[in-house]
């Protein structure tokens, strides 16, 4: 008698039992996600090109593409092909708290992974690297941080850029005034309307604000980089199972070429809704991370 059909049937039965056992063994946030058949993603509303609205109020961006790949992997990991996705907007002030209190399961926006924040939440493998610089009007005569003395600088509340600049002012006893705003668009408006002489933020954010301005040629990115920062997704502290799924998804994207394609789409090509091009080639730091994905902050 041919035993192959019986072996095949046994293999199918074993696989079903294994999948059932795996589903029962789920712990932490993965178990919660499966129980409610829903994952809640935090997103930024205006962090071009990471996470923002298009003209139809759909959330798009580099980070969102990565988040959707993570969702696909989670569906497989928990055996929930019909998993629903709920989107909740977050900002620089509330994003960490919303991860900590369980309101959102995962936040993929433009959040910096640093040692201080890592005491409160966990971070995925790095998805991007940015550096902080200044956006000014082309005729401002601001070329470096030394030119900020006696000036007002726009910052977005709750960002690492704001904290760095406050520390810089205190350390150097610098005569620099800060004007805060809730989001990057409002910070740029402070520059545009003359309330600030410069906007200090990640270079990719500055590039997007310049590209979407009414007259992009009126603005320049200036000043020596002050920091290099690892951008990553945030997830609950100490949830090893969820982090493993998130990290292996990002690692796969970065090592199989898909990550490079996503980067080129959002940083080197025209993007919705206005067809702007940021023109920010991948840095050597990010190239190195794509070769060897890791979740290390850059303030070690």
UniProtKB/TrEMBL annotation:
Highest taxon of source: Bacteria
Transmembrane segments: none
Residue ranges of every copy of the Solute-binding protein family 3/N-terminal domain listed in the record: 38-270
Keywords linked to the UniProt accession: Signal, Transport
SMART domains: PBPb
Keyword flag Cytoplasm: no
Signal peptide: 1-23
InterPro entries, per the entry: Bact_solute-bind_prot3, Solute-binding_3/MltF_N
Protein family per UniProt: Belongs to the bacterial solute-binding protein 3 family.
Protein name as annotated: Glutamate/aspartate transport system substrate-binding protein
Organism (species): Caballeronia udeis
């Amino acid at each position: 008698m041919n035993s192959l059909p019986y072996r095949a049937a046994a293999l199918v039965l074993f696989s079903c039992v294994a999948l059932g056992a795996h589903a029962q063994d789920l712990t932490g946030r993965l178990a919660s996600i499966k129980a409610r058949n829903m994952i809640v993603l935090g997103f930024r509303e205006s962090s071009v090109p990471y996470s923002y609205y298009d003209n139809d109020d759909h959330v798009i961006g580099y980070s969102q593409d990565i988040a959707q790949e993570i969702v696909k992997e989670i569906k497989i990991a928990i055996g929930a092909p019909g998993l629903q996705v709920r989107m909740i907007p977050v900002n620089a002030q509330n994003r960490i708290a919303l991860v900590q209190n369980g309101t959102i399961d995962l936040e993929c926006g433009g959040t910096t992974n640093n040692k201080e924040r890592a005491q409160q939440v966990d971070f995925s493998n790095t998805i991007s690297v940015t550096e902080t610089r200044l956006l000014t009007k082309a005729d401002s005569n601001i070329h470096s941080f030394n030119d900020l003395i006696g000036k007002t600088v726009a910052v977005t509340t709750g960002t690492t850029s704001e904290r760095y600049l406050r520390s810089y002012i205190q350390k150097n006893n610098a005569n620099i005034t800060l004007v805060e705003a809730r989001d990057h668009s409002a910070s740029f408006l402070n520059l545009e309307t003359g309330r600030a002489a410069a906007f200090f933020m990640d270079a990719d954010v500055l590039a997007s604000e310049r590209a979407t301005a009414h007259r992009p040629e009126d603005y320049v990115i200036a000043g020596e980089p002050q920091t290099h920062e690892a951008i990553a997704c945030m997830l609950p502290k100490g949830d090893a199972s969820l982090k493993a799924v998130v990290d292996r998804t990002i690692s796969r994207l970065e090592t199989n070429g898909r990550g490079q394609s996503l980067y080129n789409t959002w940083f080197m090509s025209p993007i919705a809704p206005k067809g702007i091009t940021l023109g920010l080639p991948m840095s050597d730091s990010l190239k190195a991370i794509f070769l060897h994905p890791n979740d290390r902050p850059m303030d070690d």
